[in-house]
């Protein structure tokens, strides 16, 4: 949902490097955790199948652009988090961002920043969904709440990254930029409500027909 739609050169090389380094550290941690899980879990084929399915679905819907405030879209990151866990989900969103940049959806230099945003969405949604396990809520409600929580924090991280990095060639003050980004985040959260309903229905359906797919990856903590 939250995605920094800026071209290469919008951020200085310093901040491009910082966000790339941080995202690569997180992706390496995700890979390490997945390898650790592989050694403990003999059902690795199911994990790979879910990861492949989520990657394809996310990349496809990622390209469906709603022409509001420069373009908003769904990306299914909360669903990815619920099904694949934060480690698997982190790898998936990194791949999706690379594929998207390859077809011109976002700059190559912003893959690091966008990966951080999307990993936030994946992780918050996963832990929220798991955290509501003891509550007397339906799978639909848990998934919907997790989706809204994940996408809200994703928008916050997006705003923070842009404000911290600054946009080269823009003469607006930080307060003006914050105001514009807040409007964009509001639109994003409106679309997030639609994604919450969609994710809720998908998880409810999976719960009925393939509950084994909801045996998420083990928590990172």
Overview of this structure, please?
The protein has helices spanning 13-40, 44-62, 77-102, 111-131, 139-165, 174-209. The relative contact order is 0.18. It has a single domain (13-214), classed as Arp2/3 complex 21 kDa subunit ARPC3. The two termini are 26 Å apart. It is built from six helices and no strands. By secondary structure, it is mainly α. The model is unreliable at 217-221 (pLDDT under 50).
CATH architecture: Orthogonal Bundle
Q: Output the radius of gyration.
A: 17 Å
**Strand count:** 0
What is the number of independent domains?
1
Q: Please give the largest β-sheet.
A: none
Low-confidence parts: 217-221
Helix percentage: over 70%
Counting helices, strands and paired strands, the structural category is mainly alpha
Shape: globular
Count of DSSP H/I helices: 6
CATH classification, class level: Mainly Alpha
Mean pLDDT: 84
Protein name: Energy-coupling factor ABC transporter permease
Pfam families: CbiM
Keywords: Cell membrane, Membrane, Transmembrane, Transmembrane helix, Transport
InterPro entries: CbiM/NikMN
């Amino acid at each position: 949902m939250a995605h920094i739609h800026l071209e290469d050169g919008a951020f200085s090389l310093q901040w491009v490097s910082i966000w790339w380094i941080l995202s690569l550290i997180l992706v390496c941690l995700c890979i390490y955790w997945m390898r650790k899980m592989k050694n403990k879990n003999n059902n690795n084929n199911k994990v790979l199948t879910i990861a492949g399915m989520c990657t394809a679905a996310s990349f496809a819907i990622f390209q469906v652009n709603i022409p509001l405030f420069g373009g908003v879209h769904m990306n299914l990151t909360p669903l990815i988090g619920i099904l694949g866990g934060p480690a698997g989900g982190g790898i998936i969103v990194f791949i999706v961002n690379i594929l998207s940049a390859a077809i011109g959806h976002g700059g190559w230099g912003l893959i690091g920043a966008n990966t951080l945003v999307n990993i936030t969405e994946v992780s918050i949604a996963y832990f929220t969904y798991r955290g509501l396990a003891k509550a007397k809520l339906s799978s639909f409600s848990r998934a919907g709440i997790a989706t809204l929580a994940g996408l809200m924090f994703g928008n916050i991280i997006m705003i923070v990254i842009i404000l911290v990095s600054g946009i080269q060639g823009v003469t607006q003050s930080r307060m003006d930029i914050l105001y514009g980004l807040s409007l964009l985040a509001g639109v994003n959260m409106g679309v997030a409500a639609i994604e919450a309903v969609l994710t809720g229905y998908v998880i409810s359906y999976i719960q009925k027909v393939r509950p084994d797919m909801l045996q998420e990856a083990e928590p990172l903590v």
